[in-house]
Write a structure and sequence with these properties.
13 helices
């Protein structure tokens, strides 16, 4: 019996020892997990300067942008997706999909299945995940264990696949640039296991100025200087945190800008009955949703109606635009020549004939629609200027630098492998 009791006591001691070992192992695994998070990929900060044309760095002193260009890679220009509008292109950058595949085919959209309209000014639509197809980078990163954050980015306000970024803000254009930068730096100050690996940041100053005054106005140079100062504030913060050179920093834009003189307006109702045309998006990519029985009549009325306007049936839209394969693309699409716009007579009268003096949304091959691309960091080449490439390839590049597997898409890492320091990918 005594031996039995001794044996029993030895078993309890052995069990306690196993429990201690198990506890130590569990603690060690937890520490290892935290260590893995702390030693994860270098943070990647993606900055959008809305409407910053590829050549706008010449409009004002840009010491911050110059510093990034010297330290990393600059493209002669970034080729946006069509249409060269804000929402479609921001979403292309973070999904690696052409607009026909991610569904955000314009800033104003009609979906015949949902029988609903989307507008960038409609808060309920912007927050509705049904409009946002594909998988944005913050979802890809979160699925693979990374923390993400967004200080404004189209799509970040909707629970796409049930997920927002870990940290995100509802869009408010009145938030000062300094506050935006300081919040990004505060996110980078979080403990390593909580610090975002992927962060977006957005500024609209240049686009606002180019629309209102035209791309050649001094106000654009002033806006360029303001956003450069904001980027400089971020660089100073990265310097203080010893993250400059140890993180990846990208500064891009979604599109360029072209002057739109007041006398270059096509008055649509001079050529077609607007009651039959049903316009969803006006200019410069004219989205027409006539009733099926009116399509032929509207097409005939607009074909050859104005030398600056081309009208296409959906299946005739040029393949190079990657703008056919979506139910949200209209039965008739009008494309205007660079610098022209389309409006109704009533709208012109409402505005007293005064429209903005700069615009975008035109053919993405127009040089004036070209966007900015700068990138610097440990995984990128230094001091290089590279030929133009399409923005659809950036998602794969970002995934590669973050060490995560990209979702299927239209872009290709091979198309931007030359940006990488070791040329791998």
């Amino acid at each position: 019996m005594a031996g039995s009791r001794e044996a029993g006591g030895g078993g309890r001691r052995f069990g306690a020892a196993l429990a201690l070992v198990a506890g130590l192992l569990a603690g060690g695994l937890a520490i290892a997990a935290r260590g893995a998070a702390a030693s994860g990929p270098p943070p990647l900060v993606l900055i959008s300067l809305d409407g910053f044309r590829w050549d706008f760095m010449a409009r004002a002193p840009t010491p911050a942008l110059d510093r990034i260009a010297r330290a990393g890679v600059r493209s002669e220009r970034l080729i946006p997706a069509f249409p060269t509008k804000t929402f479609p292109n921001h979403y292309t950058v973070v999904t690696g999909l052409y607009t026909e595949h991610h569904g955000v085919v314009a800033n104003n959209i009609y979906d015949p299945v949902l029988d609903a309209r989307f507008s960038l000014g409609d808060r309920s639509a912007v927050e509705d995940p049904r409009w946002w197809l594909g998988e944005p980078l913050w979802v890809t990163a979160r699925r693979q264990g990374l923390v993400t954050a967004s200080f404004f980015w189209p799509g970040s306000e909707a629970p796409i696949q049930g997920q927002h970024p870990d940290h995100w803000r509802t869009y408010d254009g009145s938030v000062p640039n300094e506050e935006r930068v300081d919040q990004v730096l505060a996110w980078l100050d979080l403990p390593p296991a909580e610090r975002p690996s992927f962060i977006t940041l957005y500024f609209s100053d240049v686009d606002d100025a180019a629309h209102r005054h035209g791309p050649d106005h001094p106000a654009v140079g002033e806006a360029v200087a303001r956003v450069d100062a904001a980027v400089g504030r971020l660089l100073a913060g990265l310097d203080r945190r010893r993250l400059w050179g140890r993180s990846h920093l990208f500064v891009i834009s979604d599109h360029g800008s072209i002057a739109t003189p007041p006398d270059q307006v096509i008055v649509l109702d001079d050529h077609v009955d607007l009651a039959k045309a049903r316009v969803v998006d006006w200019s410069p990519a004219l989205a027409l949703w006539p009733r099926p029985e009116d399509v032929d009549e509207v097409h005939a009325a607009l074909a050859g109606a104005h030398p600056a306007l081309e009208i296409f049936r959906k299946h005739e839209i040029p393949e190079r635009l990657h703008y056919r394969d979506s139910r949200r693309i209209p039965p008739l699409l009008g494309l205007v020549a660079g610098g022209w716009r389309v409006a109704s007579r009533a709208y012109l009268e409402l505005r007293g004939g005064r429209l903005g003096l700069g615009d975008h949304g035109f053919d993405n091959q127009l040089e004036e629609m070209g966007a900015l691309f700068l990138g610097a960091g440990p995984g990128l080449r230094a001091g290089q200027v590279v030929p133009p490439f399409e923005s659809v390839h950036l998602y794969g590049l970002f995934c590669h630098l973050l060490g995560i597997e990209p979702a299927p898409g239209d872009g290709s890492l091979a198309a931007v492998r030359h940006l990488l320091r070791d040329g791998s990918g």
